Amino acid sequence: MSRAFVKESDGDVYEELPERPVSTHPNRVTRRGLQLIMAEIDRLQAALSVARSEDDELRFAELARDLRYWLARRANAEVVPPPEDNREVRFGHKVTIERDDGRRQTYRIVGEDEADPSKGLLSHVSPLAVGLFGRKVGATVTAGNNEAEIVKIETV
């Protein structure tokens, strides 16, 4: 067996960590999304220094891998300015939909790394966001296994 990617330290053996996959979609980000990327890079650089000073090789490898990911995301980030009007859904809009069962949900369409549906942040490449793009208030879209109506479009 090749030992090229195996590190032995104090009896523990671990293989070199695989790289984090970088999305093939355009890396569109909000201004806030870019700020979050920059903050994560700063955090990782500081943590990397600590791991280096503590001679924590595994932690250093994990942090270095994550830093490479975020540096790549910063390098190809395309900041999309907020939409100027609310006529139809675009990246950066806050959109309220009403589902068939009467539930209203509001999402802001953001970049992949900023997305967190539980906090109302929807990735621009998600099926729902893709279905919303270009639609106007009153339009019906597929939302999961059901349909929903767009009831409000807002600029944030």
What can you see in these coordinates?
The model is unreliable at about 1-10 (pLDDT under 50). This protein has helices at about 30-55, 55-75, 125-130; strands at about 5-10, 10-15, 25-30, 75-80, 95-100, 105-110, 120-125, 140-145, 145-155. The longest helix has 23 residues, at about 30-55. It is of the alpha/beta class and about 160 residues long. The protein folds into two domains: about 15-80, Helix Hairpins (Orthogonal Bundle), CATH 1.10.287; about 95-155, Roll (Chitinase A, domain 3). A five-stranded mixed β-sheet has the order 7-6-5-9-8. It has three helices and nine strands; from the N terminus they run βββααββββαββ. The chain is about 30% helix and about 30% strand. α1 (about 30-55) packs antiparallel against α2. The termini are far apart.
What is the averaged pLDDT score? 91
Helical content (DSSP H or I, runs of 4+): 25-40%
CATH class label of the largest domain: Mainly Alpha
Order of helices and strands: EEEHHEEEEHEE
Neighbour order of strands in the largest sheet: 7-6-5-9-8
- Mind summarizing the main beta sheet? 5 strands, mixed
- CATH architecture descriptor of the largest domain: Orthogonal Bundle
- What would the principal axes of the Cα set say about the shape? elongated
Structural class, please? alpha/beta
Which percent range describes the beta-strand content? Answer: 25-35%
- What oligomeric state is this? single chain
- What's the CATH topology name of the largest domain? Helix Hairpins
- Between the first and last Cα atoms, what is the distance in angstroms? 56 Å
